[in-house]
Each structure stands twice: as C-alpha cells, then as structure tokens.
Specification:
alpha/beta, Rossmann fold, Rna Polymerase Sigma Factor, Chain: A, 2 domains, two-stranded antiparallel ribbon, 10 helices, globular, AB_hydrolase_fold
C-alpha cells in the first residue's frame, strides 16, 4: 500500500568552496536547500537524485506541517510503496542554484554588498547545476547514483549528468524532455521574459531595493507558460467555452472559465516565485544543447554516457513533443547505449509528467523495481 513520507524537514547546506560558472563568473560561497526521503544504505548505492523543472524546488514529497494543504510537487511518485519507493531508495531533492526557495539566488544577500544580488546574479547553465549537485553528492558520500530522474528541464539535467559524470550515474530517467529547445520554445521563453523585464516594477532586476515586485509581468509570464503546459484537448475537456455567468457581458473582464483559471494561476505564481529566478531558469532552458560541443552530434555527446536510460514522452505534450524524446532515443541507439522508451497516451499535455496516469506510473514502477533489484 502506498503511503506518504509524512512530515519532512528541509536542510540548508553551505558550500564554502567557490564555483566558477560556465559564464566565467565565480560565486565564492553558496547555499543549497535540500530535502531527503528514505535511508541511505550501508554502501550508499541506493541514492536517487530528482532534478526539478522550471518552477520546481526541493520539496518533492510529504508535508512540512500537518496543516499544509498540499504535499510536495511529486508526492504521487515518491514515497513508501510508490514508483520511487522510499522503502528501497534514498531520494534527494534540491532547489537549484539561482532558485528562490532557499538556495542562493538573485533574492539572496550578496556578502560583498550586503544587499540582494538582484541583476548582478549571473546566468546559470544546466552544466553548472550538475556541478553543484555533484558537490552535494560528495558532501553526502555518494559516489554513484542508482538513478537520476527529471521531467522537462529536470530531464535535461539527467542527460547532462550522464555526459559530464558518466561513471556516477547507473540509470538516467528523462521524462517529457528534449535534447535542446526549438525556435518556437525559445520564442515562448523570450515573450515571458519580456513581460517581466518591461514591467515598470522590475527596475532592471533590482526591484528588491524598491520594496516592490514586478507582479504584473510575472503573472503574464506564468499565464503564457501555463497555456503551453496544457493540451488543447485537455483544456477543451476541462473548460471548453464555458462562461462564468452563462452569457456574454460585452466587456474585457473575465467571462470564460479558462480566463478565470489562467488568471488564478498567474496571481498565485506571482506571490510565490521570484522574477529574476524565472529569467534565469528560462535562459538555462534556451542554452541547453549538449551536442554543441560534439560537432552538433547528439549521438557523439551521448557516447560519453555509461548509464542505462528510460525516456518517457506523452502524446499530447506539444511543448516537448514525443518527437523530441525520440531524437534522444535515436541518439542513444546510435551511440550503442541501452535505452527503454515509453510514449504514454495522455490528455494532460506537458504537465502529464506530474500526473498520476496509470500507464505512466506502471512504467516508472516497473523500471525502478529493476533498478532496486540491482542494489538488493
């Protein structure tokens, strides 16, 4: 029977060694907010790292307080008896560098100025996150992960891990992801960033000192992003053309249920996420392209990997379409790597990787049960 991991407590870890980012900028000291579930076995071979997507964070499962309304963002996947079974695995979640949920990011205090980093916080790439995650593994004494798992931007991190630290990853699970963004996806990200940057309250990224938040821009960015995370069929089934009052009002206020839903999502997001972090996360998405340093050949990039792979896509995901996952699969096969592929029928669009679709959960459970047998 599947249960919750229960009440969990995150921990902030301090890293005193400086890190040189891909941009050449050095961060002398940083903190990572980390949450763990389950127990590390004697030889530390049962660890799973979960990499979060654009708006994700360290709080993956369970609750911080009994009265919390919602559990962690992947609570349906992680826990005792769940596909990522905490009776078998030691599961690690973290808020990436540049985030806004406890790790060092733009809203953190810069020790050199005693003011928030703001616009001075450097662009961070996926390879930089992997470097900080490797240092986290070192801190915990984990030489090799049983699996590294991520959806969307998290899947990109799993891919990068398999290339940069091939000997430290036994299995990489890449879900609803892509080997690089299409021009259309880069365009969506830029429109979202422009909504934030052109908000009068943005102040060039240094809005903290002004005591304001570019809420309007962040709200619009999230509304645009949310549309791309859903499918046309899913939106149609849930909202259709339903009117809130049942009749036209001949104005520009909220009339359709889908408008109400998007505004609610935008308003909620604008109170809990940092605008500068949103810019950083979308830029990391834009820049990700592991084939770039291998003559444009993804197969050559993946030839560095030693891990076995599970790649999962969803039929209604048009943001990271199944064709993009099949590009990854082809590159892995061309590189003579071991890969399993599942294309799940779903109406949930890109958000399907967060949902509890039975076929998807069954695939994850079956694959991870085999991973667990390797370390039993």
């Amino acid at each position: 029977m599947s249960e919750s991991v229960g009440i969990v407590t995150p921990k902030k870890l301090v890293f005193e060694d400086p890190i040189t980012l891909s941009s050449g900028v050095v961060i002398p000291r940083y903190e990572l907010m980390v949450e763990t579930y389950g127990s590390l076995n004697a030889d530390k071979s049962n660890a799973i790292l979960i990499c979060h997507a654009l708006s994700g964070h360290h709080h993956i499962a369970g609750k911080h307080k009994p009265e919390d309304k919602a559990a962690g963002w992947w609570d349906n996947m992680v826990g005792p008896g769940k596909p990522i079974d905490t009776n078998k695995f030691f599961v690690i979640g973290l808020n990436n560098l540049g985030g806004c949920h406890g790790s060092t990011g733009p809203s953190s205090i810069n020790p050199e100025t005693n003011a928030p980093y703001g616009s001075s916080f450097p662009v961070v790439l996926v390879r930089d996150w992997v470097e900080t995650q490797a240092r986290l593994a070192d801190r915990l004494g984990i030489q090799q992960f049983a699996a590294i798992i991520g959806g969307s931007l998290g899947g990109m991190q799993a891919l990068r891990w398999s290339i940069t630290y091939p000997e430290r990853v036994r299995h990489a699970l890449v879900i609803a992801s892509a080997p690089k963004l299409t021009a259309q996806n880069i365009a969506f990200n830029d429109v979202a960033r422009q909504a934030i940057i052109t908000d009068p309250e943005f102040h060039g990224g240094d809005f903290y000192q002004h005591g304001v938040v570019p809420r309007r821009g962040l709200r619009l960015a999230r509304m645009l992003g949310h549309i791309t995370y859903l499918s046309d069929d899913g939106m149609g089934e849930k909202f259709g053309r339903m009117l809130r009052s049942g009749e036209y009002k001949y104005g520009f206020d909220v009339e359709f249920e889908i408008e109400s839903y998007l505004r609610y999502q935008g308003d909620k997001f604008s109170t809990m996420f940092d605008a500068n972090t949103y810019l950083l996360m979308t830029k990391a998405l834009d820049y990700f392209d592991p084939a770039r340093h291998y003559g444009g050949s993804l197969a050559e990039a993946m030839r560095q990997a030693q891990a076995k792979f599970l790649v999962v896509s969803f039929t209604s995901d048009w943001r990271f379409a199944p064709s993009r996952s099949r590009e990854i699969v082809k590159a892995l096969l061309d590189a003579d790597r071991t890969v399993s592929y599942a294309e799940i029928t779903s109406q949930h669009g890109h958000d399907a990787f967060l949902m509890e679709d039975a076929p998807y959960m069954a695939v994850m459970r079956a694959y991870l049960n085999n991973v667990a047998k390797e370390i039993a």
